[in-house]
Amino acid sequence: MGKLENKRILIVDDEPELKELIADYFRSLKCQVTEAGGGLEAFKICETRVFDFVVTDLKMAKGNGLELLEKLHAKNANLPKVILVTGFAELTEAQARSKGALALIYKPFKFHQLQQLMESICENYPVQI
Question: Rounded to two decimals, what is the model's pTM?
Fold first, then answer.
């Protein structure tokens, strides 16, 4: 069994093709994947469902990743493991962590890099919600 098998993952990106590719990759690892096209949609989903990970783009028109992270923190201190994804260098890893994200990954990235990052997070933060 893989380290991410059966993990509940919410993929949030306003680029439909990239979102679908990431989702398909994690489905192939036997993860339970849900997709959202922006932070507002993702937050609505999080109001009724629990996730182990939220992988969210930083810059999106319909609710950005930082806004989503802030709303999740305000809603529940025991929030999912959040990884921010960005194609811009406007945020550092330290700034992302100070906002509550566990990691920041820059586009373009290889899906196996994201997988390894998530597996590492599982090892370092083993508590499930």
Answer: 0.92
